[in-house]
Write a structure and sequence with these properties.
Shape of chain B: globular
Helix content of chain B: 25-40%
Largest sheet of chain A: 8 strands, mixed
Structural class of chain B: alpha+beta
Number of helices of chain B: 13
Pfam families (chain A): Fumble
Shape of chain A: globular
Number of helices of chain A: 13
Radius of gyration of chain A: 22 Å
Order of helices and strands of chain B: EEHHEEEEHEHHEHEEEEEHHEHEHHEHEH
Number of strands of chain B: 17
Strand content of chain A: 15-25%
InterPro entries (chain A): ATPase_NBD, Type_II_PanK
Strand content of chain B: 25-35%
Oligomer: heterodimer
Distance between the termini of chain B: 14 Å
Structural class of chain A: alpha+beta
Keywords (chain A): Kinase, Transferase
Distance between the termini of chain A: 17 Å
Organism (chain A): Huso huso (Beluga)
Protein name (chain A): Pantothenate kinase 3
Largest interface: A-B, 66 and 66 residues
Chain lengths: ~375, ~375
């Protein structure tokens, strides 16, 4: 594509995805700034660039995922680094205030935003930050961002991967997957809630289904059951627990397998089903409860994904969204469940940039702005 | 013909369901020959409505004047927690049940799990039957004999309108194809094409046991009745994160109304919100979450299988009008009127009825 002649949007280039729990921000830091350009650069633009690239934490809750940085990346004819930043949606007012204090609106830049918050907070951006949001649909952005990020590859490595021998601790390996020929693809986006999309080509996708039992359910239930305060804490507890003390398995009911319908004894018959008994409630630990919550939510999503894959006749399922951030346990459970219940027909895939695709898609939306 | 007493037993993950046929056409001769312990079993079961501290006879479900295998009598419906199984087996031993040389037809996972206990403790041989075979047999039978002249099958008209909501009878004469959703401790979903042809489509482990287990943990309640009672008084929208909490309104592009739940329990990651809700809200949110998840999975199955009538059974729905109405509404709303949710009066007893039928008409 000839970018030279097209009118390029002015810096800074941001893409923002305001979700139910987290705001995901991608920022393009140009590294090919000519001496002339640098001289003309407005002070506030320079200070924004400096602030973002010389810190890895912002305020008390903002975080830049440096391990995800795409270095030396070409976008719209410019060369630069693509940065990935996140903070809780809860702190969006602080962010808007900061935009106001840094006179962001004087930069006359278009702020492309997606996610429900692009609609919910549109007015606040306008009245407090004097900023006009260019709203984009979250699923359009997700698909766009996903297809885009996979193509340049991740600093030379594969963006897409899967787990081999997911449930065997010694043999389990993370393997690269070539997503060159992606269609058709089932995309399962696990954020606060879950959306499931069938993608047939870069311009043709449909939202097949969804479930309200998502990442927000895991964290919400965990907080109630264990008193934990953060996603990281909940995951840590889950990694140390045993869910079979809270769940009622097929073998607890049958004394073994339910052979007639191929249900192995170790399969969960009733999630949290043992918690109806007082003695078992007294014997279970917070870690067991955290684990059971994780397993229940993860397996439910896996099951629904599997059913969608079957009905859409698609055998590759890619799981994205921040529920999977630092959550290898869920990724392995999904890999194993999908493989087992589909008798090896379906494959669970994952992407390194997990929850950032919506924001990337929004950034790419700068191209559509006139 | 099988000797009395005639029982059908379904030993589930949480409850044991027992159906007992009480003959009312006993001749003077038959009465004279009747063994003492058979008489005492009949007396014990029919003159009590509660057994021990946890056994209950659902009197309102009794089928009166039923003709079964040429005999006339009443069909009784009894339940007790699976946890009290050893007390039950012990009782069978004390009442010398094994001397009656009767076959005890049993289904459910417990028929396999407790088979050795029945044999060793009470010298009883169980005839084990598959739970889903029995479920279907039981459903088709009970619907055909009707419920003391009334319809066994019903649905809800205007399910979310508190004033206009009405329970209406449904004629299930032409039942096939049918999607049968059995909500016990866990859930099984069956597609039934004819009386001899069905398949287990799928299931989910988020069932009645999950509702009760989570409720006990979150609210400190200890029984199903208590959990339901709390749920009826609570408000789930403060616990759940709705589409409007994220979008500020509807998510129009994909037809998701603002009142739809985007993330169940999603507000509970926030400390101030956790402190502002009450136990009743948590019970309600648990009920709504489990029920809607079942509804959602059911809808996907109905679509895949091309079936537009769904019958929900199982003891999760016992005295649980809240869930029944939620399912009725969800099926109708999300399918744009294509799917119909149906319910049956004898809810969780069909497996045990199927087991009884196998005793009388062995296949």
């Amino acid at each position: 594509m000839k970018i030279k002649d097209a009118k390029k949007p002015s810096f800074p280039w941001f893409g923002m995805d305001i979700g139910g729990t987290l705001v995901k921000l991608v920022y393009f830091e140009p590294i090919d700034i000519s001496a002339e350009e640098e001289q003309e650069e407005v002070e506030s633009l320079k200070s924004i660039r400096k602030y973002l690239t010389s810190n890895v934490a912002y305020g008390s809750t903002g975080i830049r995922d440096t391990h995800l940085e795409l270095k030396n990346h070409t976008l719209l004819g410019r060369r630069g680094n693509l940065h990935f930043i996140r903070f809780p949606t809860h702190d969006l007012p602080t962010f808007i205030q900061m935009g106001h204090d840094k006179n962001f609106s004087t930069l006359h830049t278009v702020l492309c935003a997606t996610g429900g918050g692009a609609y919910k907070f549109e007015q606040e951006f306008r009245t407090i930050g004097n900023l006009q949001l260019h709203k984009k649909d979250e699923l359009d952005c997700l698909v766009k961002g996903l297809l885009y990020i996979d193509s340049p590859s991740f600093n030379g490595q594969a963006e897409c991967y899967y787990y081999e021998n997911a449930m065997e601790p010694e043999k389990c390996r993370k393997m690269p997957y070539n997503l060159e020929d992606p269609y058709p693809l089932l995309v399962v986006n696990i954020g606060s809630g879950v959306s499931i999309l069938a993608v047939y080509s870069k311009d043709n996708y449909k939202r097949v289904s969804g479930t309200s039992l998502g990442g927000g359910t895991f964290l919400g239930l965990c907080s109630l059951l264990t008193g934990c305060d953060s996603f990281e804490e909940a995951l840590e507890m889950a990694s140390k627990g045993d869910s079979t003390r809270a769940d009622k398995l097929v073998k607890d009911i049958y004394g073994g397998h339910y052979e007639r319908f191929d249900l192995p004894g170790w399969a969960v018959a009733s999630s949290f089903g043992n918690m109806i008994h007082k003695e078992k409630r007294d014997a279970v630990s917070k870690e067991d409860l955290a684990r059971a919550t994780l397993v229940t939510i993860t397996n439910n999503i896996g099951w629904i994904a599997k059913m969608c894959a079957v009905s859409e006749k698609i055998d590759r399922v890619v799981f994205v969204g921040n529920f999977l951030r630092v959550n290898t346990l869920s990724m392995k459970l999904l890999s194993d469940a999908l493989k087992y219940w589909s008798h090896g027909q379906q494959k669970a895939l994952f992407l390194e940039h997990e929850g950032y695709f919506g924001a990337v898609g929004a950034l790419l939306g700068l191209l559509d702005v006139d | 013909m099988s000797a009395f007493p005639w029982f059908g037993m379904d030993i589930g993950g949480t409850l044991v369901k027992l159906v007992y046929f009480e003959p009312k056409d006993i001749t003077a001769e038959e009465e004279q020959e009747e063994v003492e312990n058979l008489k005492s079993i009949r007396k014990y079961l029919t003159s009590n409505v509660a057994y021990g501290s946890t056994g209950i006879r659902d009197v309102h479900l009794e089928l009166k004047d039923l003709t079964l295998c040429g005999r006339k009598g009443n069909l009784h419906f009894i339940r007790f927690p699976t946890q009290d199984m050893s007390a039950f087996i012990q009782m069978g031993r004390d009442k010398h049940f094994s001397s009656l040389h009767t076959t005890l037809c049993a289904t459910g996972g417990g028929a396999y799990k407790f088979e050795p206990d029945f044999r060793e403790m009470a010298d009883l041989q169980l005839l084990k039957l598959d739970e889903l075979d029995c479920l279907i047999k039981g459903v088709l039978y009970i619907d055909s004999v009707k419920f003391n002249g009334h319809s066994e099958c019903y649905y809800f008209e205007n399910p979310t309108d508190p004033v206009q909501c009405q329970k209406k009878p449904y004629n299930l004469e032409n039942p096939y194809p049918l999607l049968l959703v059995n909500i016990g401790s866990g859930v099984s979903i069956l597609a039934v094409y004819s009386k001899d042809n069905y398949k287990r489509v799928t299931g989910t482990s988020l069932g009645g046991g999950t509702f009760l287990g989570l409720c006990c943990l979150l609210t400190g309640c200890s029984t199903f009745e208590e959990a339901l009672e709390m749920a009826t008084r609570g408000e789930s929208t403060t616990v759940d994160k709705l589409v409007r909490d994220i979008y500020g309104g509807d998510y129009e592009r994909f037809g998701l109304p603002g009142w739809a739940v985007a993330s169940s329990f999603g507000n509970m990651m926030c400390k101030e919100k956790r402190e502002s809700i009450c136990k009743e809200d948590l019970a309600r949110a648990t009920l709504v979450t489990i029920t809607n998840n079942i509804g959602s999975i059911t809808r996907m199955c109905a679509l895949n299988e091309n079936i537009d009538r769904v019958v929900f059974v199982g003891n999760f729905l016992r005295i649980n009008t809240l869930s029944m109405k939620l399912l009725a509404y969800a099926m109708d709303y999300w399918s744009k009127g294509q799917l119909k949710a149906l319910f049956l009066e004898h809810e969780g007893y069909f497996g045990s009825v199927g087991a009884l039928l196998e005793l009388l008409n062995p296949t």
